[in-house]
Structure formats: structure tokens, C-alpha cells
Amino acid sequence: MADTIFAKIISGQIPCHKVYEDDRVLAFLDINPLTRGHTLVVPKEPAETLDKLSDESAAALGRVLPRICRAVIAATGVAEYNILENNGPGAHQAVFHVHFHIIPRPSPNEGLGLSWQQRSLPATEASELVKLITTALQKTP
Ligand code: 5GP
Fold first, then answer.
1. Counting atoms of ligand 1 from 1, which one is nearest the CA of 34?
2. How far is the CA of 33 from the centre of ligand 1 (A)?
3. Cα(112)–Cα(140) distance, integer angstroms
4. What are the b/e assignments for 61-92, b being 16+ CB within 10 Å?
5. pLDDT of 13-46, one tens digit each?
6. How do residues 37-84 score in pLDDT, each as one tens digit?
């Protein structure tokens, strides 16, 4: 596991603008915010991607994420926001330590720009995928 910038922030080697901390989770302001209030919520466990995170850290994140969202809404006065969590360099992950972005969306031109290129889901593909994923879920701890 590489010693990422977030591991150094968690250990206190590098400073951050901390907004929340408990035994398993740290939240701090993004150093290059897309919008005012852009916050990162990070498990202390050094998992590279979400699929590698323990259930304990996942539960701790899930417990606190909505609360931090409410605090960002209250602080910014912006009720709309995106949660972003990138996994892998091809999916725009730059820091290889799990982190959830809370990105306020004050207007259509500010915040996370999304370009969805949706396609249809043929019934045969859907049933094949359901079979594959449900089988994998039974095998995956
Ligand atoms: P990713 O693309 O990996 O999902 O996003 C990484 C985020 O970490 C970026 O939004 C970037 O601005 C932020 N970031 C990178 N280095 C630092 C740092 O040293 N301190 C803080 N607070 N944020 C950082």
C-alpha cells in the first residue's frame, strides 16, 4: 500500500482543514475545491478503492456521511450537492486512498459537471447480469 497524501494527512504529517474526526473517519476540505464547501470524507483504513474497504470502515463512513452532508448544506446554504467516489485512475482517481467527495452544486454551472451517455438495457443482457452479480454476491465475502 503506497503512503498516499491522505495517509499522511490522517497521521498528522501533513496539515488539513479538518471538519470531522472519529476513530475510523476523517473529513477535511478539498485543497482545490470545485465549489465552496467541497469536502472529502476519508476512512482511516488505507484501502485503495471502495471494494477493498472493510465492512467496519464502510459502516463508519455510511453512518457519518449524511451528517457531514447536512453540515455542509448548513454551512454553505446550498441544498444540492453531488457525492463522488472515484475508483482507479481510469475512473479519475488521483489519490489512491478511498475518499468520498461532497461537492455543493450552487448552480448548473458550478460544481460537478456530468455528461451521461446512457444506453438502453436489453432484457437478455439484464438477466445475464443479474445472474452474474447475484452469483458473485453469494461468493464474495
Ligand atoms: P480523486 O480524483 O482521487 O477522487 O480526488 C482527489 C482529491 O484530493 C482532489 O479533489 C484534490 O484536490 C484533493 N487533494 C489532493 N491532495 C490534497 C491535499 O494534500 N490536501 C487536500 N485537502 N486535498 C487534496
1. 10
2. 9
3. 32
4. beebbeebbebbbeebebeebeebebeeeeee
5. 999 999 999 999 999 999 999 999 999 999 999 9
6. 999 999 999 999 999 999 999 999 999 999 999 999 999 999 999 999
What DSSP character marks residue 14?
S
Which amino acid, residue 141? P
Q: pTM of the predicted model, to two decimals?
A: 0.96
Cα–Cα distance for residue pair 37/26, rounded to 1 Å: 15
Establish whether residue 32 lines the binding site of ligand 1, counting it when its CB lies within 6 angstroms of any ligand atom: yes
Nearest to 30 by CA among 13, 8, 6, 51: 6
Q: Is the CB of 16 under 6 A from ligand 1?
A: yes
Give the residue, by CA position, lying nearest to ligand 1 atom 20: 31
